[in-house]
C-alpha cells in the first residue's frame, strides 16, 4: 500500500492535537535528501486530562510498534525513537522492548514538563539541550534532531497507521472524558461525533447545568452546555464541570499556575503575560482593557503554541462563566 | 522578490525579513536581535504581518519567501509592540541618567513611538540584586529584560560565567556559583545587552575621580583603538579618526600631559619581538602568545593555566607607558612619581582589572635616588596606571563638561614620548599586534628590510586567521584569533601543531570591539573602526616599532642601561587563578 497517498486521500491529521496533515509530514521526510533520518513516536502525553496514549500503550502497544515499522520502511534509512515519559517507561518499557525486537527503535526518556511534548522541544531534548522550543520553520520534518529530517507523530497516530495498513481502521479517535461526569474514561468513537453526541453516548450529560473544557485540560476551550454541537478542536478530551459549584476564578488560577510552571520563560508575552495574569487574579483586577491586551499579545506574539494557548480556557472562564455570574 | 509595505525588494541568500529591512533602511524595531548572535526571537518586538496569515510573525526569525507580502506598520502591529514593550518596561528599572545607552536608548525611543505607558504594570524586579564581577563589571539584574543575549555571548566567548537559573516558576540570568567558572571581564555582556543592565564598575558615577586631586600631576594616555571610535559618541561616523580632538579634549578636561598608548605599544612590540627571537632560538615555550589583552590573560590563568608559560611576559602597552611615565619621565621631569596620576582611556573594561594586578607594578625611584641599584625589598613599587576610563566614560566626561568635541581644533601630543609608529596604532584591530611584532621580528631575524610592511593575511574580522611567514629559509606558522570562544577552540586543537606565534584578543575584531567601546558595537562599526586605524598606519612614514626614534632614545638613555630596570618596568608574570568572586 502507498501509505502516503492513502493518508493524503483520507485527509488524515495528526492526533497530538495540532491537526497537521500526516501525509504531508511523511512525504516531506521521505523525499528529503539526507543520509540520516529519524522517526519519533511522541509518547510524552503531557496535556492534562488526556489518558489515551496510556490506554493505547497498555492495550495496543503492538499496533504502535507496527505503525512505527511502517514509517521506518516508508522512510529509507531512518532510525526510530520512542520519546516516552518516565511513568510510561516504567510501566511499558519492557513490553515495548520485547515488541521492538530487532527493529532499529530506541526508547528515550522524556525531559521537561508540559512543553517537553512540543515537537521542536523534543528535538532539543534528544540533542541534550534545554527544553525550549525552536523557531519554525524549519519544521522538524525538514530539520529535526541534529538537523536531520525527523518525522514526529503521536502514539495514537502510529496506532491509526497500523490499523489503516491492516484494514481495521474505522475513522475513529480516542476521547478521554473526566470531571463531574458519570461513566468517564477512555473511549474510541467516530471522529465525526460532536461533543454532545459523545457525552450522550456514554450517558454522561449531567443533570445540573454544566460546562466543559474540550480539547485539552490546559489548552482546551471552555464550552457551555448549549455550545456542544461541535467536534472537539485539539486533543480528544472532555472535562466536565458543574457550573453552580465551580469557582471560575479558582480554576483560572489553577490554569495560570500550570502555565507559569510549565512555560520556558523564553519569550516576553508568555513569560511576562503569565506573570501579569496571575497578578491580576491576585488583585482581583478584572479591567477588561488589560485582560484583552494580555490575551492579544499572548495569542498573536507568543513564540510557541504554549503561549498562544494560554488565553483559550482562561478567557473562556472569564467571559463565559465569571463575567456572567457577576 | 518580496513586498514590504507595498514596495518590492529582492531576496538575497536565505535572508530573513528583518535582514532585508535592515539592508534597505526600513525600520523594524528590535531588542534581542544582535548580528553577532543567533536569532532567538525572544523579545517579540519585531513582529510584522504577512498577508494571508492571521497571527503576527517576528521579522528576525522569519525567512523571506518569494512573493511574500509584508506589512511593518498596522494597528495590530502597533498594539502588539506597545503591549510587549509595557511588559518589558515592567522588568526594567529605569536609571536613565547613569545608563550606557543614555543617548541612544532604544527602549525610550520605542516608548515614545508606541505611546507606551511605561508603568502600566508594577516593576517586578526592583528588589533584584546587583552583582559585581571582580570589581570590574556591574550587573544590575533589576534592569535585565531576560533577552539572554549576555548568556549567549558569554557562552560564545567560551566563558559560560553567566547562566540561566530556574527558581520557582521563573528563569533568570545570574552569575555562576560554580567554582570552575569565572568572569574574565571581557565586557561583551555590556556591548550585547540592549538595555544597559551591564556596565563597567564606576560607569558613570566615578568618572570625575581621576581629576579630583588638584595637587597631583595628572597624565592621560589613550589607547590606539579609541581614536577611530570616540567620534561615534558625538555623531561622527564610525571609523572617523579624531586623535587630535582627543588630545585637545583631554587638555580641556584638565589633564596636565597627554601621551599616546600607541607609543607604549611600540615598546611592547620591541620587547615581545625580542622574546619571540629568544624563544625561537631556545625552542622554548612556543608558541608564544600575546598578553596585552587582560581578559585573555585571565582566561588563560583561570581556564587554561597550562599555557601560562606560553604568554609573553612583555607588559601591555598601557602598563609599559604608565611604568615609563612614573620612572623615566618622572625622573626627567624631576617629579616624585607619587605625585603623578596616570589615567588610561581604554576601549576596555578588563583594563580596569589589569591595573589592579600585583604583578604589573613598576619600581619607583626612591625620593632623591635614582632607579639603580635596584635591590629587592629596598625599592618602592607603584601602580603604573592609577585609573582606567573607558571610551564611553571619556565621552560622558566630555559631555558633562560641555565641551564641543566635534568642533575642537586638533592638538598635538606632549613631546616627551614622541609619536607612535603605524605599528603602534594598528594594535587596536585584530591582527595588529601580530603584524607589528612581525614587522620588527622579520627585520631582526633576517637582517633584511621588509619590502612590504603590510601583513594582510592577519587582518580582518574573521575569528581565526592562520598564516605562514617566511623568514629567511624558515617558515613560521602564526595564528591570530579574536573572540575567546575561538581561542578556546584553537587551544583545544593546538596539541600537535607547531605554531610560533599566536595573537589573541578577547573581543570580536580586537580592541575596536572592546567592552568599553561606544554602543552600539555591531560588525559594521568594528569594520569601520579598524579601517580608521589602518588608514592612519598607511599614511605614516614610520611604520615599525623598532624604528620609532623615541623608542630608540628611551632604550639608549634609560632601559638599556640596567637590565634589571628594563625587566622590572617592561615585564610581568602570571599565575594560576582561583575564582575571584562576585
Report on the architecture of this protein.
The complex is a heterodimer of chains A (326) and B (582). By secondary structure, chain A is α/β, with parallel strands linked by helices. Chain A is 45% helix and 16% strand. In chain A, strand 5 (172-179) and strand 6 form a beta hairpin. Chain A is globular. The model of chain A has no long low-confidence stretch (mean pLDDT 95). Chain B has 582 residues and is of the alpha/beta class. Chain B has 3 domains: 2-73, Ubiquitin-like (UB roll) (Roll), CATH 3.10.20; 96-200, Alpha-Beta Plaits, CATH 3.30.70.20; 209-570, 3-Layer(aba) Sandwich (Rossmann fold), CATH 3.40.50. Chain B is built from 17 helices and 20 strands. Chain B has helices spanning 17-23, 75-89, 106-113, 149-156, 188-192, 243-253, 261-282, 294-303, 317-333, 350-354, 391-400, 422-425, 432-446, 484-494, 523-539, 549-557, 563-570, and strands at 2-4, 7-9, 47-50, 57-58, 69-71, 130-133, 137-140, 162-167, 170-175, 198-200, 217-222, 257-260, 288-289, 340-346, 362-364, 380-382, 387-390, 464-471, 474-482, 501-505. In chain B, helix 7 packs across helix 13. The longest helix of chain B is centred in the middle third of the chain and has 22 residues, at 261-282. Chain B is globular and about 80 Å long. The interface between A and B is medium-sized, with 28 and 33 residues.
Question: Which features does this protein show?
Answer:
heterodimer; A: 326 residues; alpha/beta; Rossmann fold; Ubiquitin-like (UB roll); de novo design (two linked rop proteins); 3 domains; five-stranded mixed beta sheet; 9 strands; globular; B: alpha/beta; Alpha-Beta Plaits; four-stranded parallel beta sheet; 17 helices
